[in-house]
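FORM 7B: Structural annotation worksheet

SECTION A. Query
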Amino acid sequence: MIVLDANILIRAVLGRRVRQLVDTYASRGFRFVTPDVAFVDAETYLPPLLKKRGKPDADVLQSLDYLKQIIEPINPDFYGEFENEARERLRGRDEDDWPVLATALGFDCDIWSEDQDFFGTGVAVWTTSRIEIWRARSLWSQVPAQHIADLLKTCISAIVIRHISEVENTSSQGDSVMQARMKVRQ
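SECTION B. Predicted structure
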């Protein structure tokens, strides 16, 4: 799970890369959330941005409605509980961004944003150019620790047994090698 800032929602409407990343990751089961006010911000800022680019804003609401199907808007009843902590961490920066940080604090997850105000708040922040690293890290975090431990144990055992076999083939100390092999298998 990752919290999206309003600037990522805007990029998902204006551009192709963010929209493609969101669509791809969502189809693979990644969960995206954002405070509900991020959608309000996107609705506010998109029409002037589109006008500035000479593009019609007729599809803005339709595009945002589509995004709401794959990016879950979070209610202020949830993230409001973390407002004070979020504002404290953002002090001296853009404190209006507190809902995004509060949502991340509430879910104990990272933020996807192009806004540098989140850096140094104690929450990992990923930009679009680095979001693939987050995805890879998230995949590993979904693997239960016991599976990783079992995999490592199997790999290490295979390496040790292969090494012992090589030593057996080149050594005249067959008995001591056999004893070492028995110890490894235990």
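SECTION C. Observations
DSSP finds ten helices and five strands in the chain. The longest strand covers residues 32-35.

SECTION D. Sign-off
Analyst initials: ____
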